[in-house]
Structure formats: structure tokens, C-alpha cells
Amino acid sequence: MGTKNIAAPASPPGLASKNHTQNHHQSQPQQHHHHNILPSTSILVIIMPTIISILLVAILLIVVFLRRLQSTKNNDSTKNNRIINNSNCMFITLSTININFCQEVKDGCLYGGSSSRLAQTKSRRVEVFTYKELEVATDKFNEANVVGNERCGVVYKGVLSEGTMAAVKVLQGQGKQGERAFRSEVDLLSRLHSPYIVELLGYCADQHHRVLVFEFMPSGTLQHHLHPPNKQSPTVNWGTRLRISLDCARALEFLHEHTMPSIIHRDFKCSNILLDQNFRAKVWDFGLAKIGSDKINGLVSTRVLGTTGYLAPEYASTGKLTTKSDVYSYGVVLLELLTGRVPVDTKRPPGEHVLVSWALPRLTNREKVEKMVDPALQGQFSKKDLTQVAAIAAMCVQTEPDYRPIMTDVVQSLIPLVKNLSSACPSNSFSFNQTVSPRS
User: Fold this and answer.
1) How far is it, in rounded angstroms, from Cα 429 to Cα 239?
2) Are 208 and 237 contained in the same domain?
3) For tag attachment on the chain, is the N or C end more exposed, with fewer CB atoms within 10 Å?
């Protein structure tokens, strides 16, 4: 068979014309696309400079506003930072004293240092007093106005020029350690704001004089009421003791857990707990306080300072100080509130000289705990509350610091006890047992 060649049929003239027309239309959009590029570019060229101009104007306005704001702050700072000249000594108020990096004392004058490590709070305004002003306030430091003799000075009751009652603490010369304690206390207390810490109103550093001015706490120290020199003094009742224990726990909770880094009081004891007219407690005397490190519990190694009977065993033996050292001291104070005994009493029978050693084995036995209670309470206390407070005290004075609670846990354990007490006595809560003869 022969092979046939089949030729493709020729397109009719009309169809060919249509195909040509379709090809022409398909190429047409491409031509329109090229024509539209020029108008879009022109629009961008017009819009971009306008946007850039607007941005530059906005930046300029922001810069002008920030400069005016900074100028206003500088003017306010200049007004507040008034300079006081006292004989050879110049003080700049509102300056803060750095614990670790403060400048040296020169020519008997104390100069404000750089900002402290306590970055979480701003310095509160504390007044700078002249020594003459404080002489007037205390009637020339009259002995009749003495309200306390502390470890490092004498405390006078005074009335400031505006009529405010104040406690004026005159620090006695202790060399470099005393100077460090003064700087530390001014720096810390000008930054700490808590209703459970005695407020620093101001200070004086005229030449060699070092004086601290505090809010006045009319009821004195807890030491004076728990261990009065006069046996006929009225006894603080059970409810007031519970409230005092909660106030003190809140103070340490604030120092340990609400400041960054934590603050270790290092000398927490009954004589450093002051009471207001309603017997609400506040902590003071931060001369030995230390700022903790960033490690767990703020561990720092330091010289062993404090009061015998209140020192945590690991701190007394190694010098390693943590917030748990304060917890131990708090436990000792709690035992004093429970038993009415002092931390160390050599007049007691053998085996009872040290309060913690004597009390710790008895705190977990309900019958023995009841026999430990301060006889001055005359049985007027809640046995249920007593058991819980004894358990808290037992945990706080554990030999191993890791077994001691943090102060937040102590606060949360005491709150229900005080709330129950408040609901039982909603209106008047006596600070003293009325059955005991008042002090003459």
C-alpha cells in the first residue's frame, strides 16, 4: 500500500482574519501595562517626600518636648537640692549615702554618696537638721527627756519646730564602725517605706555630731513591757502579744521579700521593737543591717555582730549570714512573748539558762507548752492559738537554716489567729491584763 500524505486543511480566509484579530487583542494588555508604569512612579515621587517631611517634623517636635521636660525636671531638682552650710560642713539634702561606695568622711563632714544598691525604691525626703535645732528640740538634751539608752547612743524625746514629737537618737563615737552604722541607717531608712518600720524623719551630721531623728513611739520598747525592771508593771495580754508577733513578722517579710536585694536586719530583738500608743509594733535600729547578695536567701559572709541569745547558730559559728538568720532571731522573740523569759538567764536552774535549748524540746508537747506560758498571763489565752504559735516558734528556731520557714509563711500562719482575735473582741482590746497592778 502506498503512503498517503494528508495535508492540513487551509484555514478559511475569515477564520484567519479572526485569529489575527485575537492575537492583536492578546498583545494589547501588555502594551497598556507598559503605559501605566509612568503614572504610578510619578505618584510615588510626589508622596514619599511628603511622608518623609511629616516624619521629620514629628521627630523634631518630640525632641523639643523631651528637652522641655528635662529642663523642668532640672529646675525642680535645683529647687529641692538646697545646700546647707553649717560652719565647716556642707550637706546636700536629698542626697543618698551608699553603703558600699560612699565617699570618705573629710574634715569632720559627711558628704552624700552615689545612689545605693537598693534600686527598687526611691529615696524619701528626710530633713537635715543642725545640731542647734536639735538642742532646742530636746531642751539642750536634758536628761529629763531621755527615753532610752541604746547600744550605740542615747535617745531623747523632742519636739521639732513645727510641733512634731520625735525621738532624737544621739550616736556616741564608735570610730569607723559607728560611722558606717550611721551611713547605713540613713541610707536604708530613707529608702524603706513600710508601716512596720520606724520612720526616719531626718538626721544631723554637724562636724563630729551624728544624730538620727525618728518618729516618736510613745509606748517604748517591747523589752520594757515583757521584762520590766519593776515587777508591778502591767502585763501585755495575749491578744496584744499575737498582734505584736504579726507586726514583727510583716516587718521582716518586707525586708526579706519585698526589697531587692533583700535586707538582713542582723540585730532583731525585743529592744529593737517599738510600740505606738495602740501597741502596734514597728522595727528600728538598722545600724548593723546588711544587704543580702543575689544568692539564695541573700547569703553573705561577714563579721559576727549582734546580741547573744538571738544569734542563729550557723551565723555565730561561721559568719555566714542569710535571711534565715533573722528568722531564727524572730523565733527567739516569739518564745519571749510565749514564756516571758529572756534569751539567756544564768539565774535559772541548770538546763534552763538558754531559752531556745530549754524550750525547743517542749514546743511539740501540748501539755508542756501550757506549762511554759508566761505566768503573768494567768491562764488568759487560747490553748488552740497557743499550740499554733508554739509550732511556728519551733520551726523558726531550728538548728538547720533550711528547715526554718520564710517570713511570708509565718505571716500567713499568724493572720487567721489575729483575725479570730479581732472578731472575738471587735471594739476595745486592752493592751494589758487588768488583773495586774499598774506600775506606780
Assistant:
1) 8
2) no
3) N
